[in-house]
Amino acid sequence: MRFGPRKFAVVAAIALVAGTAGGPTAAADRDHGLPLGPRGLPETRTVETLQPGVTLTTIVRGESDPADGWTVEVAVPGGDDPDPDAPPTAVADRAHADGLAGALSGKGFAARVEDVTTPAVADFAGGSLGFRVRIGLDADKAAANTLLTRVRAAGFTASAVFTGWDGASTDRGPWRVQVLTIDPKKFRGDLVGDFGPDIERRETTSVLARTRNATAGVNAGFFVLDPAAGAPGDPAGLGVYDGRLLSESTNGRPVFTFTADARHAGVDRYSWTGKVSGQGTTLPLDGINRVPGLVRNCGGTDDDLPTSHPLHDTTCTDPDELVAFTADYGAETPSGPGVEAVLDRQGRVTEVREPRGGALPAGARSVQGTGTEAAALRAMAVPGARLAVSGHLTDERGRPARIPQMAANGGPELVRDGRPHVTPQADGMVRPGDPSFYYGWAAKRNPRTIAGVDGHGRIMLATVDGRAVDSLGLSIAESAAVADSLGMESAVNLDGGGSTTMVVDDKVINHPSDATGERPVGDAILVLP
Fold it and tell me: If we measure between CA atoms, which residue out of 174, 170, 166 comes closest to residue 43?
């Protein structure tokens, strides 16, 4: 029987010294509230026991700020791109921003040009990202939407945004943070990663939790969302479940690893390589359980385009690939031009499909080849021959690494050795020539999901609501400061935005930001009784 929730401590409506008007602070403010907004903001904390060794802490900090309001942000045509057909961007150089402001003025709109700055982090210098163009400021969203309609009617691309989402250190909030803490000294359940009945489909965190009768859970790693980028639901990075590596790594990016008993956890960086051998030949594998030719978040092999380095929310391509499949992928393997060798439990080739795609017999797996690799696989995959499919991980120093029991992909890293250590450049969130991506994804406040471990070895899973006026969300730099202030010695950002979800006792207890409600995701981290 599940241990019923028991509230054991409440700290209500007290003012705590935390943070400064100069920006997020580090360990000095631990135990004194979250480092968000000016000093002296009200902050409440409520702690509940969900089962032995598992607590839920709900933190509400700050108050509505009358200085914030709704404004119309106008996209800058062309931006820094010399191509006259380039799409509009949120931030651009001063000349293009001034040109847009002048065009708006000519249509009767009083536009302002604002310099967008962001703090320096471990591997990104920050500073000015460029300039944005805005019109109006109103406490009433309806008034901003009326203005937005006029701006669009005049031929401009624009949206209504709340200025509290910009990330200014002077904002007064509010913020809503919820933290699951799993203490391995008291925990007697299981902590698992779960992707549902198969990899290629998405399920909501609440459905995944309900199916496993979980006490609690949060969404986990990044995943394919658009069918044009692969199979929706496929982890866009390393996925390890009960010791089975079912999705290859985005090479070099951080992952959150943990064991079922919660006694071992941390933030690690891995690279993956694989191969298929047979008939005296060895061929390199490109991936596991994903659509051949499409590499979401990049970080694959040297022949991928446009890069083999991590590049977030980008789909790299490679027409010539070998991809291995297990029955975990779905009802059928991806169909299309190429060759597929179906293998039985002993690795014997039982069928060669051309074109590729179809159901796998019980206990079978397969390898698909596309482009030039199709011919190489065809020559190797003689019916009755044995093929050996293998792969291994290396750590960030290039040393062989054991496959963890559980791993959820993430990025960027937030905290290392008890100090904020934010790595958007290494992890692909800084796009060359595209400051608008960093502006929207990292510099601005968004809903966030964070995983980490504190100095006592306790696992912490946090969600932060955002894209709302009653919870502003966090920038990536603020996420690191909050993780640090909560006592995390190591931490990583998991999938956020509309994916951010926390479930407790079969109920979604945060406020997912998608207009349609809770978003189906690729996988989740679940606390089982």
Answer: 174
pLDDT in tens, the chain (529 residues): 333 433 333 333 334 444 444 444 444 345 568 999 999 999 999 999 999 999 999 999 999 999 999 999 999 986 555 544 555 789 999 999 999 999 999 999 999 999 999 999 999 999 999 999 999 999 999 999 999 999 999 999 999 999 999 999 999 999 999 999 999 999 999 999 999 999 999 999 999 999 999 999 999 999 999 999 999 999 999 999 999 999 999 999 999 999 999 999 999 999 999 999 999 999 999 999 999 999 999 999 999 999 999 999 999 999 999 999 999 999 999 999 999 999 999 999 999 999 999 999 999 999 999 999 999 999 999 999 999 999 999 999 999 999 999 999 999 999 999 999 999 999 999 998 999 999 999 999 999 999 999 999 999 999 999 999 999 999 999 999 999 999 999 999 999 999 999 999 999 999 999 999 999 999 999 999 9
For residue 237, which of 256, 219, 222, 225 has the smallest C-alpha distance? 222
**Which distant-in-sequence residues (6+ apart) come within 8 Å of 101 by Cβ?**
111, 112, 113, 133
Helix (H, G, I), strand (E, B) or coil at 95: helix
Q: What is the pTM for the complete model shown?
A: 0.93
H helix runs in 175-244, sequence order: 205-211
Gap between the Cα atoms of 227 and 188, Å rounded: 40
